[in-house]
Amino acid sequence: MELLIVLAVLTILVSLVIPQFSRIRENQVLKSGVSDILSSLDKTRGQTLSSLNSSEYGMHFQSDQIIIFKGKVFSPGGSDNESVAITTPASIANVTLGGVSGVSGDLYFNRLSGSPSKTGAITLATPNFSKIITISATGVASVN
Q1: SS in 3 state form for 60-99?
Q2: Reported pTM
Q3: Which residue range forms the structural domain that includes residue 20?
Q4: Which of 48, 79, 125, 128 fits a 20 to 30 Å CA distance from 73?
């Protein structure tokens, strides 16, 4: 009888703890995705300000990845493109740049000032959490 009670208590504890581990992992994946986006923005802006290869650099946002590209216009097959994957279950849920909202979008940084071609917000979300990354007119990004 005591063994059944111990097993019942353990089962209840496990059923309460496992979903919390899942939520903790999901929150950590979201934080990692935000960090990837922020570091990609900093890298892209830095490459532009340093005039790497005498060019501007930009970013193309998709639901499952960010692509850093050379120039002012994104070309899907560009040989200079660098892809940064967003780990599931996180994904880019919304991109609002220059007043246009959607699930994808592009921006590039001005070579002399480092200012972005468009300001706006990127929403990174998981099933239970979300974060909004705001890109200011100076090119600095912040998270809500």
Answers
A1: EECCCEEEEEECCCCCCCCCCCEEEECCCCCEEEEEEECC
A2: 0.84
A3: 2-143
A4: 125
Compute the distance between CA of residue 75 and CA of residue 120 in angstroms, rounded to an integer.
22
Q: What is the pLDDT of residues 35-58, one digit of tens each?
A: 999 999 999 999 999 988 899 999
Query: In the numeric block, which tokens belong to residue 100?
Result: 């246009």
**In 3D, which of 16, 17, 20, 26 has the Cα closest to residue 129?**
26
Give phi and psi for 34, each to the nearest 5: -60, -45
Structure tokens at 107: 């921006």
Alpha helices in the chain (DSSP H): 2-49
* CB neighbour class for 86 (10 Å; exposed up to 12, middle 13-18, buried from 19): buried
The CATH number linked to 72 is: 3.55.40
